[in-house]
Amino acid sequence: MNPPLSQWSSKMEVGIPRIDAQHKQLFDLAATFGDKGDEIRVMKTILQLCDYVKVHLREEEVMMERWGFPGIEAHRQEHKKFKGMLVELLGNAKAMTLDQIADEVHRLINGWFYNHILTVDFEYKPYVKTGGP
C-alpha cells in the first residue's frame, strides 16, 4: 500500500511561476491515480507524464543554464535517472496490472519527484532571484 499522496503546497515553490505551476501540475496528475483506475485513464496519465517530463525537465535545465547554475550537470544526471525510471516503467507496463502501474506512477511522483523538488530543485532556488552567482 502506498503512503498518502503528497500534496502540493507553497513550501515546494522555487520562485519561478512557470516551474511552480508545472510542479503543481505533476501532483494534480498523480491525484488522478487516487482511486486506481481503468485502462484508458491509466494509459492517458502515463502519456501525460511522459509529455510533462519532456517539457518540464528541458525548461528547467535551460533556465539553470541561463543562470549559470554550477550544479547543472549533477541536476541533469538526476533528471536522466528519472527518465530512466519512466522508460523502465513503460517497458514493464505490459506485464503489470493497472493497479501495479498506478502504484508505480504514484511512487515516482509521490516519492522521487516530491523529494527531488524539495532537495535538488531547491539547490537552484538562490539563483532564481539573482540570475546567477
Give a description of the structure.
By secondary structure, the chain is mainly alpha-helical. The protein has a single domain, classed as Four Helix Bundle (Hemerythrin (Met), subunit A) (Up-down Bundle), CATH 1.20.120.50. It contains 5 helices and no strands. The chain has helices at 17-31, 39-67, 72-92, 98-118, 125-130. The longest helix has 29 residues, at 39-67. It is globular and about 45 Å long. The protein starts with 16 loop residues before the first helix and ends with a helix.
Offer a quick outline of the entry.
The protein has 133 residues and is mostly helical.
How is the secondary structure organized here?
Layout: H1 17-31, H2 39-67, H3 72-92, H4 98-118, H5 125-130
Helix pairs in contact: 1-2, 1-4, 2-3, 3-4
Task: Please describe the structure with a list of short key phrases separated by commas or semicolons.
133 residues; mainly alpha; Four Helix Bundle (Hemerythrin (Met), subunit A); 69% helix
Name the CATH class.
Mainly Alpha
Poorly predicted runs = none
State Rg: 15 Å
What is the number of helical segments per DSSP (H or I, 4+ residues)?
Answer: 5
Tell me, what's the shape? globular
Number of domains: 1
Largest sheet: none
Average pLDDT level? 84
Percent of residues in helices comes to 55-70%
Category from helices, strands and their pairing = mainly alpha
Q: How far apart are the first and last residues' alpha carbons, in Å?
A: 44 Å
| Element order: H for helix, E for strand | HHHHH
